[in-house]
């Protein structure tokens, strides 16, 4: 759901990393990562647990910083080498399991979305304007969650709560929505609803950057896939060439068979 008109005169990619490494606790969690993601590009980063996917997101959001930068290191978001957290929030909407845990309290779904205007967890003494109320109503209708908008988040299912977090991320009309392992703990019905929500967002003009260990999370609108393991980007390219039986079997170190059905990919036989 993106109506913002972005300045594209500079023709910058949304995200540009070159030779980015991050060390945490004496361990290299990102190892010379290089990637360019263009404006409007729907992309999935797929890898096993411990591959470095969440570390990559935390580096994008400035929770983690590259170590020992040199002349060969590039770390840019929308062309800016130095980008503060408020700029990042305007460009990239983040939905993570850590964020969902923070919102597991007795505030309404509607308040969750409104809190996105203030980067807060719920509302306190902030002044909510009529324009904020109007945009929140539009997002609620767009995500088809008006029937539960008044319910406390801690009484919602995981899938319902996650849709309100997506609504919160959309209030600034970001260029891209970054989702970190978004289908953890979702049952089949919630997974179906969530995937339809992502497809609707992608078709509305907001790019999707999906980070997951689940092959079946990758919606048909995603055309590019990066495979990640051991803190590095292993393979990167067109989905049809990357999501093969050989590649996915090697990535997860398990014998399997990859099949495609109606634009979705599934692993079987393991």
Fold and architecture overview:
- With 270 residues, this protein is α/β, with parallel strands linked by helices.
- It has one domain: Rossmann fold.
- Helix content is 30%, strand content 25%.
- The protein is built from 9 helices and 11 strands.
- The protein has helices at residues 53-60, 85-91, 97-102, 109-115, 130-142, 158-169, 188-204, 239-242, 245-252, and strands spanning 15-24, 27-37, 43-46, 74-77, 92-95, 176-180, 207-212, 224-229, 232-238, 257-261, 264-268.
- The strands form 3 sheets. It has a 6-stranded mixed β-sheet, sandwiched between helices.
- A hairpin with a 2-residue loop joins strand 1 and strand 2 (27-37).
- Helix 4 runs parallel beside helix 6 (158-169) and helix 6 runs parallel beside helix 7.
- The longest helix has 17 residues, at 188-204.
- The radius of gyration is 19 Å and the shape is globular.
- Residues 4-9 have low confidence and may be disordered.
